[in-house]
TrEMBL record:
<dbReference type="InterPro" id="IPR036390">
    <property type="entry name" value="WH_DNA-bd_sf"/>
</dbReference>
<dbReference type="InterPro" id="IPR036388">
    <property type="entry name" value="WH-like_DNA-bd_sf"/>
</dbReference>
<keyword id="KW-0805">Transcription regulation</keyword>
<keyword id="KW-0804">Transcription</keyword>
<protein>
    <submittedName>
        <fullName>GntR family transcriptional regulator</fullName>
    </submittedName>
</protein>
<feature type="domain" description="HTH gntR-type">
    <location>
        <begin position="10"/>
        <end position="78"/>
    </location>
</feature>
<keyword id="KW-0238">DNA-binding</keyword>
<dbReference type="Pfam" id="PF00392">
    <property type="entry name" value="GntR"/>
</dbReference>
<dbReference type="InterPro" id="IPR000524">
    <property type="entry name" value="Tscrpt_reg_HTH_GntR"/>
</dbReference>
Amino acid sequence: MFELNPNSETPLYMQIVEQTKLAIAKGYFRNGDKFPSVRELSRQLLINQATVSKAFRELDRQGIIETKAGIGTFISFDDEKISQRFEDITKRLQDDLIEARYLGVTLDEVIAMYKKAGDYNDR
């Protein structure tokens, strides 16, 4: 499921974060599903455990996973953190729409861009 590109400008830990979110968006993971441990993912991806740990910290910070000592790591949406991120995204989208309108991009063009960007099934 995870395909890391060591030559990418995006750090490996952020590639794990982004690919986890994409896997959730595609329905591979749902709230409550077990997530691989740091050790398992490190072994699977052939990367340092510290890199995977950093990804886990970021996923936890974003309210996407929760690690329960002695039990494991699970996809666990933190409603408060998710709500804050939703507000952040709304603000960024508003800013982007203002910029697009300033550049003369029509609403139909914005909608087409949004649809193209949202077509993650082909990725």
